[in-house]
Design a protein that fits this description.
Layout lengths: L5 H11 L2 H9 L2 H16 L4 H21 L8 E7 L2 E8 L2 H14 L4 E4 L2 E2 L5 H19 L9 E6 L2 E8 L1 H12 L6 E8 L3
Parallel strand pairs: 2-3, 2-4, 6-7
Antiparallel strand pairs: 1-2, 5-6
């Protein structure tokens, strides 16, 4: 199968914002309607503009393809994730050497323009399926706790867990930052919390 061109991928990303609503109209399914409403609320409460959300997804797609092209066949098992939030890029995962780590960063810089890059890739073997499952559980626990907190809108904080390290991204007030960090630090299984926030006045 041929790789999709970036322009087509970007169009698909834009369409993804509309698909849930379209399905709810065509199918009239209660479950789909509920999912669509939740998606719409999350987007509307995100402090990024819709255009920025689409741009972030497009940046991630371009960066992943560039990293893939930059690695040799023997290096394809390198475990790296690219997260873009409000045009700030976070790289996480494991690389076999500092040389590969640097090459991954260079590959991202070659294809994307962004405000800031945080390279949190560590030199290690890829994490196991069990570790990744545990990371997913940690993320779910944190998001659930945020949902129960009346003073924090979870739609405004992106939570990523990699090998028990929690990364928090978003556009938040100082009060929201304090709540989010406190929830993450007090979640069982979390080894470290890394803040990559931008700040908005209350």
């Amino acid at each position: 199968m041929r790789c999709l061109k970036y322009s087509r991928l970007l169009n698909l990303a834009k369409m993804a914002l509309l698909i849930p609503v379209t399905l709810s109209v065509l199918q009239g399914c209660a479950a789909v309607v509920a999912s669509s409403a939740a998606t719409g609320v999350a987007v509307s409460q995100d402090r990024r503009t819709t255009g920025t959300i689409v741009d972030d997804k497009g940046l991630e797609l371009k960066a992943v393809q560039s990293i893939h092209n930059a690695l040799t066949q023997d290096e394809q098992n390198t475990n790296v994730s690219v997260i873009s939030y409000n045009n700030r890029v976070l790289l996480i995962g494991q690389a076999p050497s500092n040389e590969v780590r640097s090459r991954v960063e260079a590959a991202v810089k070659d294809v994307a323009k962004f405000k800031q890059l945080h390279n949190e890739i560590v030199i290690a073997t890829p994490t196991s399926l069990m570790t990744r499952s545990a990371d997913s559980v940690i993320t779910t626990k944190i998001k659930s706790a945020m949902l129960l907190n009346r003073d924090l809108n979870p739609a405004r904080v992106k939570v990523i867990t990699e090998d028990s390290v929690v990364y928090l991204l978003g556009i938040v007030t100082p009060e929201e930052e304090e709540i989010a960090v406190d929830i993450a630090r007090n979640t069982k299984g979390v080894a470290k919390v890394v803040k990559i926030f931008e700040y908005q006045n209350p």
